Every structure is written in structure tokens, then in C-alpha cells.
Amino acid sequence: MNKNMLLAAVSLVAISATAPALAADLAARPYTKAPAMIATVYDWSGFYIGINGGGASAHTTWDQRAPLVGGEGSHNATGGTVGGQVGYRWQSAQWVFGLEGQGNWADFSGDNLSALTGFTNRSKIDSFGLITGQVGYAWNNVLLYIKGGAAVVGTKNELRLAGATVASVSDSRWGGTVGAGLEFGFAPNWSVGVEYNHIFLSDKDITFTGIQTDRVRQDVDMGLVRLNYKFGGPILAKY
Known about the structure:
Shape: elongated
Mean pLDDT: 86
Strand order of the largest sheet: 2-3-4-5-6-7-8-10
Largest sheet: 8 strands, antiparallel, barrel
Number of strands: 11
Structural class: mainly beta
């Protein structure tokens, strides 16, 4: 009896000694909060270079000034264009501002039969350049912008008879341009977009020596697809 009581007492003492260790082993692990998600924001700031291509229609009106005075008619000079652009943008919050220079080869041509003479009046735009400023608003990697500035256009005007060129005058004409575009950043440093431009040129007198003088008016409507590469990191971390 005494031996049984002694064994029971020793067992209770042993269990009491090990209970805290067991309790420590079974204690709940401390809660660790998952790290906060980091949202990425596309940064439109930096220098960029790119290529573009598309089509245009140049509405051209001829009015003879000498030896006769009167309207000779109008035509649309249509065709394609390809070129490049280089610029710089800087971003403040969601607003994006930029400066850009663009140069293109073009083949916009068309003609009409003069209402005053037997000649066919033919016009062609073979090149143009744009120097513009931009203001845009960005939704992460999507940018909507408007632009405006100066334009210079290389033109060629001809008088033709029975398919042969009788007289030809080439010159450069200055004017203005306005436009709008939508651009999408689809990969680090790369973006693709579409753009519309309207070029309005001042009226200019063209003299075909020894034949006639015409006042020529031109306005160009143009749509382009653009691909740009931006130098520098495109992503900023926003916590």
C-alpha cells in the first residue's frame, strides 16, 4: 500500500514537471501579416524614338490668278507614308507633357481637269515634317493625348497635257498641325499607338513660267500607326 502511494506520488510530480514543456510545444504560432500588394504604375517619362506608317488625303484647290482669274477645280491627293519620330515626355501625376519631331516620306498624289484650260492640274506631297508639343492623360500604361505645332511639306505641282508634263514646280510649304493619339505600353519600354493629324497649309501662288499663275490651297488629313521605344525604366513601384 505504501509502495503504491509512493509510486502515485512520483508519477504526479513527473507529470507536473513536464506539463509546461508540453504546453509550450502546443502553443499557437504567432500570426504573421502577409506583405502588402505592390501596384505597378507605368512611367511615360523619358526620351523615345520610333517609326510610323499610314495613309492620308490632301484636299487641293487650284484658282488661276493669271492670265485668267477663276477657279480651276479641286482634287484629293491620296496615298501612303512612312517615317520616324523622336521626342521626350515627362509625367506629373497622371498628366503627361511632351515635345516631338517627326519626319516622313510620302506619296500623296491626285489631279483634276482644269475648268478654265485644257491642262490637268496635278499635285503631289512627297515629304513632310512636324514639330509639336503634346499634352496627355495616362491611365497606367494607356495614354490619351492631343498635339499641335508647326508643319513643313514638300510639294510638287504640275500642268499636264495628254499625259505629258508641260510644266512643274517643286517647293516647300509651311503651315500648322493639330492632332490626337492613343498609345498603349505593351511591354517594358515599348508602346504602340494610333494617331490622327490635320495639316493646314497657307495659300501659295505657284507660277508656271510663261504659262500661268495659280493659287494653291492644301489641307491634309492623316492617320498613322506608331511604334515607340523609350529609353529608361518604364515601371515605378507604388506602395
